[in-house]
Specification:
elongated, ten-stranded antiparallel β-sheet, 114 strands, mainly beta, 1 helix, 1484 residues
Amino acid sequence: MAYADVGPEEQASSDPSISLGLLEGHTYFVTAKATNWAGLVTTASSWGFVVEASPPLPGFVHDGGQYDIDYQHDLSTISVGWGGFLEPHTDIAEYSWMVGTCSGCDDIMEEQHVGLMTEASATDLNLQPGVRYIVTVTACNTADLCTTVSSDGVVPDTSPPLPGVVLDGSSDGDIQYQASRTTIRAHWFNFHDPHTGISHYYWRVGTSVGAEDILPSTRLHLTEQAFVSGLDPPLPLGVQLFATIRAYNRAGLWVERSSNGFTVDNTPPSLVTNPAVDSTLGSVVPNTQVWRDTLSATWDFADQESPLLYHIVSLYTHHQSDLVTEPVRLPGDAHSHAFSNLTLHDGDTYYVKVTACNAAMLCTTRESPGHTVDSSPPTVGTFAVATDHVTQLGRDVDGHMTYWQTIGSTGPHLRLAWLGFADPHSGIDHYLVTVGTSYTGTDLTMAGPVRLNHNGSFESSGEGHVQLGMVPVSRDLVPVERIYISLWAVNTVGLNSDVAHATFETVPSNPTSGVLDLVRRCEAQSCQGHCTCAPSNQQCQPLNAACNDVTGDSQYTSVQVFDILDLHASVPDGQDVNFTRSSTSLAATWRAEQDGRIPVERYEWSAGLSGEAVGSHVFDTSADRIWHDVGSRTSAVLTLPRDGAYASLEPRVTFVWYVRAWYNQKDFAIFTSDSVRSLPLPPQVSASRKVKDLENISTNKDKDFTTSQTMVAVSWDGVFPDTFGEINNYQVALGTSSGASDIIAWGGVTTTPDLTRTLLDSLSLQTGVTYYSSVMATNYAGLHTTVSSDGIKVDTIAPTAGTVYDGLGLHDADYQNDSLVVWGTWHGFSDLESYIHHYVWCVGSSPGAEDILPCSDVGVQISATEKLTQALIPGKKYFSTVTAVDAAGLRSSPVSSNGITVDSTPPVPIERLNFGPNLVRNPSFEQTLRAAEWNVSGTAEAVAASGFATRDGQKYLHLHGSVSQRVLTQPGHQYQLTFHARHVEKTSLPLQSQEGRVSASGLHRMFKLYQRFGTFDHGGSSAEAAQNWHRHVYYFTATGSESDITFSSVGRAGMALDQIGVRLVNVSAQQDSGGESVSGLVHVHTSTAADWHVVQASWDMEDLESPIVKYEWAIGTVQGGTQLQGFKSVGRRTSGRNEDLHLQHGSSVHVNVVATNAAELRTVVYSEPAVVDLTPPVISNIRDGLESKDVNYQSDLTFTASWEVEDKESGVSLCEWAQGLSPGSTELSQFQPTDSLSSSSKNLTGLIHHGQTVHTTVRCHNHAGLESQAVTDGVTLVTSPPDSTAAALRVASPSQTPFPAGDSHQSVADQLRFFWEGFRDEAGIDHYEISISGPSNYTHTWLSAGANGETSASLSGLGLESHQTYTVFCRAVNMGGLVSDAVWTNVTIETEQPLVNGSSVISQWQPPDVLHLDWTGNFLSQSELVYEVSLGTVRGGSDVMQWVETTETAMTVTGVDHSRAHYVIITAVNRAGLYVSQVHRLST
């Protein structure tokens, strides 16, 4: 576009109807050309501008900073980083960001502008755990076109997961032992996190809790079980191992718990005693029994590595393991079991199989030897004698049924044959025979019944085997003598058949033997018709004599009858049984008293219901044999036949055993046992009652949890109904599994039947373990029933405390408006040992107090609300306190909310006016840039300049990169950051930097630079250069004890920085607004440049009840006005800045601020009007000291400066001063407010020392925020005299001869010349003083010398005496008039030459060429002499030796030709340089 004439106007625009064809992304310049009436032209060009029509391309937004996070631990800070926003044509001008609970929302933090920063943080937020917060970033280019991108959100979580329970093994429960050495299993539950959930787990295994020496820590996904196999080396044996689970939530926080441990045991239980059926009950022969309804077994297993866990006991027959009953599971400590209510089959062999399993689930199985059951006795047979029956039975056996007399060594005996005895189930084992001369008599077999084993030696025709046997008798038989033989069979289980009685008559066949002839017709042997010839189970015609029942007659021997269970053992005295567990058998033994009374000849036995007829309820009294003859035997077993009238004993009724003792054929007595009752079943268990674990022995309520580790009370009231009084005792055991007794063994606690509760004390129970009380009720028959409680778990750990919120919402509330309602919400309480039974909630004015709402049980609900009758006090905080009570009654620690406040007042303003000293080191870059002060990235150069090219001092910083410094701050305090910036000078770049960056704690801003140099045709003046410096003011709040202040350049040209300051903001006392608007409480600073202006405002508000959540500010030309800027939110920042204003000189600026607290109450404050002033104050006549004349030296450590300052527009608001050792520096004292606006004093004791020059810099500010400064020429501190330690004084003696005078000697007596050096004084030496003293009280006054810096002096006309020594003194006087110590030196005057005392020289020649000379005594002098010797071959010559000096009076010369004549010249020289000579000719 060509130049367009716009006349005298100072603005112009192109025709909008004509397209200029500007290209997006290209840079363009506007040039104005001004022509005066003389035709002279001046041009000026604008900054380059870029055409931009599209917004930036979107980038990314990362929660947390550089790398995106989804979860964080901080509840007060949101951090964000962004990038990737691309602007292809221009540049990104600035970013802004906001925080909310949704994309694009700002309900958490309103939009904040951060310039070109790509990271930001917001602090002091009230974030809630578990809520997702989303950051929205807006990027705008220089054309104000913007693009908005939101993050995916971050969820705060400050609490680790709640711990769960870790169990060893993979089953539902916890294992204490395992068998495998190469595998490990663990499972867990109840790890949870209410805010962010569980992310993953780690697990490890070690030999102690938390250790990982067995299995290193390994990450797991979201599973609740873990398994590892193939371990090498294998797991150690007998060592307890612990699995540890660490649960992480998605915020990276973790909690861990360990199992209670497990031990590896790879050996099964060992057998101690093999299983065996108890042969002491219902058994006559080992491994057999006659009881068919019950069976008892015993065993014993042991395991040294792990406890026995349980036994599986089963009963089966030899018929291919046909189970008789279902297997029974018994506790690990069981050693016996009684099977009852069985239906065992006669003749079957039964086996008891016991499988013992230890806690490692390794088992050992053993089975008992076979145990034969037979409840039926053998059937009775008869003697195999020949008959005269028409049918030849063929039962007789030749040679048998005979008797034999004594023949030699063979005694008398009978040879018998019999048949018909049979036992289809267990078979006949043997037979017993007695022989006597009377009925059932045994006088011929006095040693007892003769045993004859069963065999099948002869087969009769159709009647089975005929048994043969020889029975010894005690004497030879008499011919035709009648003998009575009793024969009965015994089966393999020991049951006896009925007795076969027969009477035989001896018929001799020869003198030594004869035939036993059966007496087929006989007489009765008792008054009841007992005989040997009657049909089976019948009797003969009784004797005519009447029977006499002599029971109770003392003449007759009495008999004691005992009920027994052990069928093959005699009964000790007093051990009669009263109960039997068998319902199919009775047994007894009896004993006749041996007291000399009428003895018993034979016995009969029977049984029956007590109190009824003999045999009742046992035998069919109408058909069965009631009394059974046993001869002289004293025991018998009754087994009820399966198909009899009474197949089983009626339970719980009394049966007695009858013994009828016959004393002769007519006298008998009946004796009975004391009765026995059949209890075939174990004690019954009530279906409605249970074993209870009680809190104490006096309570009745079953408890599932207890806090006691030493005591458990147990009750079993009504559990075992005992209507008939059958229970003998109760035993109580305690174990860690149902029925177990590993804590209290069986037998340790036994009670009588009338006691149904007991206290188990002196225990050592473990927390978290469930213990089971087991009660064993044992009846009088020895059968028992065990019932276990449902368990009681020891819980000594109180519930884990959770979190309590104020309010009823999902998140915590901090403030409320309603003063008549309280509410609370809670979560996170847990109890792993038991469970939360209820919560207790109360409200008070302090955490844990209940003065507002008393504590009450609110059940298991997790929120509560209550209306109050008395209003809460506004401004006071109230706290909800919740206590969780678990099922064991343990209470968690009370958890209080963080409090909720009733707020009814708006924010209160605080006036901000004063600022502390500058905290920045080397703020104006006057000193070398050191890393200890400024950390440089890129290029930074401290440029020395003069005049107004610097803003402060003699240097400014040319920055192309960044520079930062860490200053000391106080956390939570607010600081003012000020600095001056401008463009760099005389650059050839067409596009200058227009912005810079500044950052501090919570502050990240861009700032603009002024009109750059060189845009006009004419060079700028110093005043113009000064106007290019612009002061920027920001505020930030420190978050730590140190804060980083960083400045960064933007663009290729860099920028200039100077006079940086960080000052603590000091606030005055609080002023109560009373809820109304207040004026003058906003601090306003304005800055003005050529074409743009800045208004910076700061304020401070306070709310005693609720925090201030938002500030809004506006700028106007009148109070309350918004003409320059409408109300704009700055969030919680207490300052605002507007850089796009156009202000007029002399105009007034008003700032209005609205503060809103969390209760949505507002306060409005206003600033005083700020006058726009473009000129800084004028400082003149600055000087050191208070006098009108400038001071250059002083000895006082208090330094004073005075000046004159004025500002005609806005007035001087503040002057600051600082001291340094160079003009403009501040290393001695940073800028501080002055005592007055015209002078100030400061004591620098300890900061400076003698000789240092102090320069004072004064900086004054006007009310418009502009400033100027001036520097004194300095004043030097003088407090010490000059230092003469290294000083030296030297006399320069003049010589009148060719020989120089020696040290401190001279030959001139009327003058002295001397030199000095080495006097030192940092304050400077003003002049020197000299003096002379000598003999005869010769003293010269002090004379001034060296006033112009000379270090030598001459004195003449002195008249000094020869051969006398004089002392010369010199001292220095410094600028303060202080005199140093004097230094001195001596000088001796000698005006006469040496005297000649002799004229001979002794010479001696020594071949071949050595010459010895000696002139001792030739010369005399007052001072030491030096001799100069020359030797020549002519007089006065020195061709042999020239000018050799010596202090000796003899000399040896070599290389001398003895053949020639020689001349020696000896010159004696004294210390003053005077001399005398002699010449001698030496002889050859």
